[in-house]
Amino acid sequence: MARKTKEEALKTRQLLIEAAITMFATRGVANTTLGDIADAAGVTRGAVYWHFSSKAEIFNAIWEQQPPLRAFIKDKVAVVAGSEPLLLLREIFIASLQFIARDARQCALLQILYHKCEFSADMMSECEIRKKIFFNSQNIQRILEEGVKTLRLPSTLNIDIAMIMLHGFFSGIIKNWLMNRESFNLCQQAPVLVDNILATLQIQCEPPVMLEKAS
């Protein structure tokens, strides 16, 4: 039998990666074997071991080749950098949520991350994966800082706390939607969800009032 060309080998490797994404997203990483991936890809088990020595290796390959979220939404954000900060944030967040809602592969990857994976030492860390598949934290922080600088956001805004809040809001929305996609229309409701989240950044909170104990 003739040896496979480099192009054919790369095609088979990518086929295995795509099959692994599907299997991990539906069955979970722990419950999927390399044999399951081979069957899903329609290749022999030998073909799997030619490209990957372990399940962790194919898991890591999935994320190593994954472009950052910003690469998918850059053409969908109408507002350019340097524009009104809150409007730019709004565009980024809406475009991101709508991309996630519409793109089946991105949904599968997020399903693996949020619901179908238990990490081990030989797997890429959850922190590194989040950097690839979630918002660009450094970019969001720069936009918030610009908002404070130009007085579009309260001067008292704590950027670190705002970043924690934004991450929590969007992680929660995506995680809950993935659990039951019929619970709400993420694509359609993305603008109103984002508007309500961004509204929290514009509230200048006063120190809590301590109530006196009744005598």
From TrEMBL:
Signal sequence, start to end: none
InterPro entries associated with the record: DNA-bd_HTH_TetR-type_CS (IPR023772), Homeodomain-like_sf (IPR009057), HTH-type_Tx_Regulator (IPR050624), HTH_TetR (IPR001647), Tet_transcr_reg_TetR-rel_C_sf (IPR036271), Tscrpt_reg_MAATS_C (IPR013572)
SUPFAM superfamilies assigned to the protein according to its UniProt record, in alphabetical order: Homeodomain-like (SSF46689), Tetracyclin repressor-like, C-terminal domain (SSF48498)
Top-level division of the source organism's lineage: Bacteria
A Pfam family this chain is assigned to: TetR_C_2
Occurrences of domain HTH tetR-type (ranges): 10-70
Keyword terms, alphabetized: DNA-binding, Repressor, Transcription, Transcription regulation
DNA-binding region listed in the record: 33-52
Record-linked PANTHER family: ACREF/ENVCD OPERON REPRESSOR-RELATED, ACREF_ENVCD OPERON REPRESSOR-RELATED
Protein name: AcrEF/envCD operon transcriptional regulator
